[in-house]
Amino acid sequence: MTIKQNLNAIKQTLPEHVTLVAVSKTKPVSDLMEAYTTGQRIFGENKIQEMADKYEEMPKDITWHMIGHVQRNKVKYMAPFVSLIHGVESFKLLKEINKQALKHDRVIDCLLQIKIADEDSKFGMTPKEASDILQSEDFSALKNIKINGVMGMATFTENTNQIEKEFKFLKSTFEDLKGLNTQNCQLHTISMGMSGDYKLAIDCGSTMVRVGSSIFGSRNYN
Ligand SMILES: *Cc1c(COP(=O)(O)O)cnc(C)c1O
């Protein structure tokens, strides 16, 4: 199957309210261009430098999502162009994103990453930490960021019951946060689901799936 065939097959299965982020990390620009000519405009990367390099090389109507763990000292390299940062897991990071966005006179959209997996290796905040941030005065002072929703990564397991439980937990966290009376954020996005579990994620309420290997083939990290 070609990238074009993979993309078209996946797009056919997605409900209209679900946004597809094509996760192109480690893949060459030629592969991304194949997806681009098929009509894909949203790409997700997990390394800031790699995303910035691809941004330079590729057409400017692409929307770039940072889906990986973000180091604060690197935010400045993506601040001029990034459209959505999925992995925000601390207030300190939000402050840095706000500061860099201000320099470019932009408002950068962000998702709060919630830890839903049973693995220490996965990042994210607790629902309580997220709600504390959204209700804090310090947060309402940040005018150059916008929180659009939440993101989560399920445990790497074959156990679909567990994955389903984790996705439902993210969905209910989203509903709780949405119910808070915060004036300066409008939550509408639940970023959950990857190649192996995006259908289940959609059944559990996902509005944004991050699909890599099912589009571009397996990754080689050497
Ligand atoms: C790599 C990655 C994906 C895509 O994974 P696939 O299994 O290749 O679809 C999704 N989300 C995050 C955060 C990733 O790092």
Give an account of the 3D structure:
This protein is of the alpha/beta class and 222 residues long. It has one domain (3-216): Alpha-Beta Barrel (TIM Barrel). It is built from ten helices and eight strands. The chain has helices spanning 3-13, 29-37, 48-57, 75-78, 91-103, 127-134, 137-140, 160-179, 198-203, 213-216; strands spanning 19-23, 42-45, 63-66, 84-88, 108-113, 145-151, 189-191, 208-211. The chain has an eight-stranded parallel beta sheet with strand order 7-6-5-4-3-2-1-8. Helix 3 links the parallel strand 2 (42-45) and strand 3. The longest helix has 20 residues, at 160-179. Bound molecules: pyridoxal-5'-phosphate (PLP). The site of pyridoxal-5'-phosphate has 14 residues, from strand 8 and helix 10.
